[in-house]
């Protein structure tokens, strides 16, 4: 996680560093990103970088957490509008999120994120080369608590908080896995944007209703 010295910086300087990180991570996946490019764009000494972050994956995890915060906040709004139906909300939010991934400000970051992960896995490096941990900020933790509060758990067969956490993780795995498939296969024209929504809808349906065919009575 970022060091306290980073959070003690003036807001403008923190924003400049994050913007520089976003530019680099949008041009390169983590395993080939350069600290030199980031500090040059942010106009900070190399020594200062290590006063703010342990290493490059540390900064990457923090940058990714900022994106996750926006995703969580938008998802909460969707669940609230759908009266707590998390499955319906995720399907509807996927259409909005797809537009952001294809044409939004983080398009190139997502492309490098998913393609970088795929290349690292194929080369048996694991993760994103050196790997990274998502920074669990106070805001991100608060958003996760809010999400639990707006979901109508009475509609679902969940018994406790562990069940809630497990279900949320499964849903998000389905969500991100479908987008990863798009970026991995879009290059050779095997995947189209509409296929992402179909895949998410199918997999969520399997999770919500089961995959076994019911015998006719």
In words, what does this structure look like?
It holds the Pfam family TetR_N. InterPro entries: Homeodomain-like_sf, HTH-type_Tx_Regulator, HTH_TetR. Keywords: DNA-binding. GO terms for molecular function: DNA binding. This is TetR/AcrR family transcriptional regulator. By secondary structure, this protein is mainly α. It has one domain: Tetracycline Repressor, domain 2 (Orthogonal Bundle), CATH 1.10.357.10. Helices cover 70% and strands 0% of the residues. It starts with a helix and ends in an 8-residue tail after the last helix.
List the keywords.
217 residues, mainly alpha, Tetracycline Repressor, domain 2
Rg over alpha carbons: 19 Å
What CATH architecture do you see? Answer: Orthogonal Bundle
Question: What is the CATH topology classification name?
Answer: Tetracycline Repressor, domain 2
Spell out the helices and strands N to C.
HHHHHHHHHH
Strand content: under 5%
Characterize the main sheet: none
The CATH class, by name, is: Mainly Alpha
What distance separates the N and C termini? 56 Å
- State the domain count: 1
SSE blueprint:
Blueprint: H1 4-7, H2 11-27, H3 35-42, H4 46-52, H5 56-81, H6 86-103, H7 107-122, H8 138-150, H9 161-186, H10 193-209
């Amino acid at each position: 996680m970022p060091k306290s010295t980073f959070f003690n910086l003036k807001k403008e300087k923190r924003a400049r560093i994050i913007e520089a990180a976003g530019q680099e991570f949008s041009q390169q996946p983590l395993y080939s990103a350069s600290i030199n490019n980031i500090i040059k764009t942010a106009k900070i000494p190399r020594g200062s970088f290590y006063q703010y972050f342990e290493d490059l994956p540390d900064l990457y995890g923090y940058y990714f957490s900022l994106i996750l915060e926006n995703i969580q906040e938008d998802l909460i709004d969707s669940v609230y509008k759908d009266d707590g139906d998390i499955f319906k909300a995720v399907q509807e939010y996927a259409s909005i999120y797809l537009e952001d991934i294809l044409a939004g400000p983080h398009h190139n970051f997502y492309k490098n994120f998913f393609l970088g992960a795929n290349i690292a896995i194929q080369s048996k490096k694991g993760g994103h080369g050196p790997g990274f941990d998502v920074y669990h900020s106070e805001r991100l933790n608060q958003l996760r608590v809010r999400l639990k509060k707006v979901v109508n758990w009475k509609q679902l067969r969940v018994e406790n908080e562990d069940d809630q956490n497990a279900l949320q993780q499964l849903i998000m795995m389905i969500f991100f896995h479908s987008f990863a498939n798009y970026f991995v296969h879009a290059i050779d024209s095997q995947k189209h944007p509409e296929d992402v929504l179909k895949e998410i809808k199918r997999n969520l349906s399997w999770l919500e209703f089961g995959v076994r065919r019911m015998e006719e009575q």
